[in-house]
Amino acid sequence: MIFVVDFGSQTAHLISRRIREFGVDVKMVSPEEAYQKAVKEKAKGIIFSGGPASVYEKGAPSIDKRIFDLGIPILGICYGQQLTAYLLGGEVKRGKIREDGPATLKLNASCPLFDSVSPHSRIWMSHGDEVLKPPQGFSLIGESETIKSAAIANEKRKIYGVQFHPEVEHTEHGSLILQNFLEKICKISTRKTVISIEDIIEDLKKTVGNKKAIAAVSGGLDSTVAAALVARAIGKNLIPIHVDSGLMRKGTTEKVIRFFTDKLHIKPTFLKTQKEFLSVLKGKTDPEKKRKAIGKLYIDLFQEECKKYKDVKFLVQGTIYSDVIESRGTKNSANIKSHHNVGGLPKSLKLTLIEPIRHLYTDQVRAIAKKLDIPDEIINQQPHPGPGYAIRILGEVDEKRLEIMQKADEIVVGEMKRSGWYYKLFHSFPVLTGAKSTSVKGDGRVYGEIIAIRAVTSVDRMTADWAKLPPELLQKITSRITNEIPEISRVVYDITTKPPATMEWE
Ligand code: XMP
User: Fold this and answer.
1) Whose C-alpha lies nearest to ligand 1, atom 11?
2) Which CATH architecture has domain 197-379?
């Protein structure tokens, strides 16, 4: 087991993915728990991630210094290198200039970390600070155009540091450097894991045997891929269940039914339950109460349905690696996940969970989806939150407002697709704000609701930027909404980044 200590880097998850691709187990830990856990769980190697802080600043994340005395190999990356140097008596200072982007690594000494790495190779930098003087016992192994301490090492203590990012694709020999750390320094044997669908299916066959499994399928990419893999393994012993809450994007249910029936030849069970969902939402305006009500009803309905199948032993869930990380991450994300996911299903179901894509990232899930012949309309769709429209209709959700939302959403999605923007955006949707304003339609004055358009780009969900949409597209969407939906008086465009604003309005 390799530990990755997360100092807040955007690429901390990527480090663990790279290690996992070598067939090695990884655990992400916080700096506070790293020392205790490394001792208790006998880590074979520890990697310190990068991070946005400066080690010499007050309140900057740090680590129990005793971690360096455990004899466990350590590799510090960027902030991780600076922290190592700082805590062991070296000198870290703000560099003359910030360096973001490509640079060249020139190796000055041999070191197992750089075995077979060419003497000059391209690396990727992203830093403001630098190690000016390494701690005693460390030597300077490699330099770049701007810094002498691109790589430092204390071979006796098996402590290494690199200023650049070996985990990113742009570092030419990054993968080899990480492999060297695992093999040559931590003495772990590696095997390059190519994700093999056949292996996943074989594993599933062994696990499930001739028992039955239930899958909750939402129409989203992850649950579809998970269910499709299980279907390949156990065929008709898979029971896909789709709860149509009436709060999802138009066509979702049809998409699910089409895929399972036509491609997998399994008829999914689907429950049409919009009335029930609207009824539990009645009178509720608080976003969390709305989320909870939806989550609870979903679980109740699902559980009731499960009772009809007596001999089922397994529950298939489309958890992916970022879900695992997120739900362990901030308190907020833990909350978000618990309301809608099958993960929130009560233990009383007494089903064994199978999560065939738990170790994969979205790009890997997409690649598998393509191989499984899952249609593009599912692969390329924007994710839709579990509570669906309910958290995009601010305040109380009733049939009328839901209908307005569906119309507006169709216009937004339709125009985004026509212009090609849909596929460049992480999300694009209207929000029924609950605020009212005056407009003049025909000869009459209308005091109607305001719709906000939210369109964002994002790679990792954690941060998002507002999309710089062409004015003509915004104009088209606005005109169509105000013309085609009489109750809407005005359309505004949300240009707030995340942070501070979340992607959803509620
Ligand atoms: P925020 O609004 O927190 O959203 O920036 C980040 C991502 O999470 C989705 N989201 C949810 N997904 N149930 C879900 O299944 C929820 O309650 C929920 N709230 C937010 C949101 O759509 C975005 O992709």
Assistant:
1) 385
2) 3-Layer(aba) Sandwich (3.40)
- Whether the CB of 340 sits within 6 Å of ligand 1: yes
Mean pLDDT in residue range 265-274: 94
- In degrees and rounded to multiples of 5, residue 21 shows phi and psi of -65, -15
* CATH fold group of domain 397-494: GMP Synthetase; Chain A, domain 3 (3.30.300)
Answer yes or no: is the C-beta of 454 below 6 A from any ligand 1 atom: no
309 DSSP 8-state letter? -
Distance, CA 244 to ligand 1 centroid (Å)?
Answer: 19
Q: How far apart are CA 478 and CA 408, in angstroms?
A: 10
Which of the pair, 237 or 341, is modelled with greater confidence? 237
In degrees rounded to 5, what are phi and psi of residue 456?
A: -135, 155
One-letter amino acid identity for 464? Answer: A
**Among the atoms of ligand 1, which is closest to the Cα of residue 498?**
5
Domain 2-185 has CATH 3.40.50.880: yes
Structure-token pair, residue 404:
């307005």
Residue to mutate (ligand 1; options 384, 465, 503; most atoms within 8 A of CB) = 503
User: Which residues are known catalytic residues?
Assistant: 78, 165, 167
Identify the residue whose C-alpha is closest to ligand 1 atom 17.
336
Q: What is the best residue among 297, 504, 506 to mutate for testing ligand 1's pocket, by most ligand atoms within 8 Å of CB? A: 504
Q: Are 222 and 379 in contact (CB under 8 A)?
A: no
pLDDT of residue 335: 40
Same fold, 2-185 and 197-379: yes
Long-range Cβ contact pairs of 413-418 (< 8 A, separation 24 or more):
413/249, 415/473, 415/476, 415/477, 415/480, 416/455, 416/473
Q: Ligand 1: distance of its center to the CA of 504 in Å? A: 6
pLDDT of residue 464: 81
For atom 12 of ligand 1, the residue with the nearest CA is: 385
**C-beta 339 within 6 A of ligand 1:** yes
Answer whether 498 contacts ligand 1 (Cβ < 6 A): yes
Q: Which of 45-54, 159-168, 177-186, 295-304 has the lowest mean pLDDT?
A: 295-304
CB of 31 within 8 A of CB of 62? yes
Residue % of the chain over a pLDDT of 70: 94
Q: pLDDT higher for 470 or 169?
A: 470
